[in-house]
Amino acid sequence: MELIEAIILAVLAASTPLLIAATGELVTERSGVLNLGVEGMMIVGAACGFAGAWLTGSIFIGALFGIVAGTLMSLVFALMTLGLAVNQVATGLALTILGIGLSGLIGAGFVGERITPAVHLHIPGLTDIPLIGRVLFGEDAFVYFSLALIVGVWWFLYRTRPGLILRACGDNHVSAHALGYPVLRIRTFAVMFGGACAGLAGAYLPLAYTPFFIPGMTAGRGWIALALVVFSSWRPGRLVVGAYLFGAVTILQLHAQGWGVGVPSQLMSALPYLATVIVLVLLSRARTGGSTAPAALGTVFVPDR
Amino acid sequence: MRKTLLALAAGLLLAGSVSAASAADKLKVGFIYLGPIGDLGWTYQHDLARQALVKELGDKIETTYLENVPEGPDAERAIEQLVRAGNKLIFTTSFGYMDPTLKVAKKYPNVHFEHSTGYKRDKNMSTYSAKWYQGRYIQGLIAAKMSKSGVLGYIGSFPIPEVVSGINATILAAQTINPNIKVKIIWANTWFDPGKEADAAKALIDQGADVIMQHTDSPAAMQIASERGKLAFGQDSEMIKFGPKTQLTSILDTWAPYYIARVKAELDGTWKSEDTWGGLDSHMFAMAPYTNMPDDVKKMAEDAQAAITAGKLHPFKCPVIGQDGKPVECKGGDHLDDGQILGMNFYVKGIDDKLPGK
User: How many CB atoms lie within 10 A of CB A164?
Assistant: First the structure.
């Protein structure tokens, strides 16, 4: 029982940064912009988040630092791709390289320092319930926030008029423009939201997961977040499933090794990726025709006047 | 506007490359690093040694380093860049630089190369490494004494001989204290991913391990062990900051004496291609202070360290029994020979797991 609880707790912690970053990227992509710089924005968020928390002693301010840093990074991207109509793929890749370098520079002075990680909720009585107590009532604020965030994004995209307009920009920017919507402005906000989420996801790593900063500590999680958006076929509900599935397989393969199941560890390490690919294939087979990707995804839009 | 940006970007790229400059009479020594110098582990220790080198011979030499150089074809370019910048002695500090270093070495016979942890040499290319398994043996003794559950947790990076010999040395030592000791092994399949290393440490602790040892590079496992009130060993560098009440000891890579000796040889003109595989006796690595343990355990660890240093105790003393229950061929007299340890691809008896790829 305790082991199951421990596994679920580890899965939630491992999945949360993926979920937050992927939620932001989902909104960005729904507006028609492909930002491949998630990894770069995350790692800068991690460096600034740690810096903020270390300097002020507050995890909350650290998280804010992460959000602001991610947003600033995404503004560089917006300036290039929306303002100057540069290729989005190339700019996104450049943003990642920039982010990795920049984070090393920002974080250089903080390497080797440690902070007190984010506190976990504790409600006497509720948190002590066996099996589900700590899972439901004993998480840190990031976990609850990530779930609130994805519900909020779902509600925004499907239940509000601005959400509808944002999706319209992603599906057909020419029509949206003809209807008088400020496509570039909407996309800029979507890109900024994506940057803010990536920055927060990055900040989660040094603030709650492993409370220290080391250059390169995101270790490819930004790329996984990007893959999860495709996996979810750009739908918030499936994104949650995908993020937790990925986290669960990652943690379970570690436990399987500890139990000595006898499957090669290399294969075990590949399992989360294999599972993602298989589910993706199944989903696309089950779907009735048509691509679910935003139709204008990754295309440059220059208003004619 | 776009042209200006491009020009700016090009300018930044140039500024980022090696700056060849100044005093022509000084010997130029170059370093290629795998990670950032702030990784607190592998690369950090190499750079500490470089700093010690500058302190010792700074008036005669000039050092340059390139960090974050990926293993593979990119490394070749980076090494060649150092050659073109006038470096006469170049240290390439990771296993994956082996072939690129050899290729560049053949191209520039007048430049001397030092490659860490590899096995290919040439007349202008040396190799150097350390017998870390000696340190692992001491850790195994301590772990068996300190474990209450009798289950040790071991986080491996990749199932290569260096890591496998470390696991075997650990368990062989632990068995001399507690014949029924168990070790749970989780391969992270990465050298560096703090999140994953933390997850692996959590899994091991959740499965009953109470002493965590790692062959991955970040202090994440130490930090988790500290959070859970368990014990752990550091890796490559001093990690006690991440577990003041947790770290038992740590194997410290101390490259400085070797680097200083090799650069002095280069300055004297006596440098020649060699294969150095040094242990505690030649100070290729050191043990961090023995902490968080009772005095008798500390004494035992110190005695073992002294015995290994003096050559009286060999971690792979024959007979070494393999997982199949049969003794391993003993090529080194009363212990396994260097070749057997350098190519170790089997688990010893007492490990209930299967070696990946076997």
Answer: 12
For the record, the structure tokens of B166 come out as: 């470390």
Residue with tokens 């496992």: B221
Closest CA to A230 of A243, A249, A247: A243
pLDDT tens-digit map of B178-187: 999 999 999 9
Helices (H) and strands (E) in chain B, counts: 11, 12
Separation in Å, CA A160 to CA A151, A152, A193, B29, B208: 13, 11, 17, 63, 50
Q: Chain B contacts of A207, Cβ < 8 Å?
A: none
Give, in degrees to the nearest 5, the angle at Cα A160 between A156 and A163: 60
**B72: alpha, beta or left? (left if phi > 0; alpha if psi -120 to 50):** left
Q: What burial class does residue B131 get, using C-beta atoms within 10 Å of its C-beta: 0-12 exposed, 13-18 middle, 19+ buried?
A: buried
Residues in A lying within 8 Å of B, measured between beta carbons: 2-3, 6-7, 10, 14, 17, 84, 86, 104, 107-108, 111-112, 114, 205, 209-212, 214-217, 219-221, 250-251, 254-255, 257-260, 262, 264-266, 268-269
Give B153's contacts in chain A (Cβ within 8 Å).
258
| Residues paired with B213 in a beta bridge | B154
How many angstroms separate the CA of residue B272 from the nearest CA in chain A? Answer: 36
Q: Which helix (H) or strand (E) holds B156?
A: strand B151-156
Kindly provide the ipTM of the predicted complex, given to two decimals: 0.86
pLDDT given for residue B24 in this prediction: 57
Distance from CA of A177 to the nearest CA of B (A): 25
Global pTM? 0.86
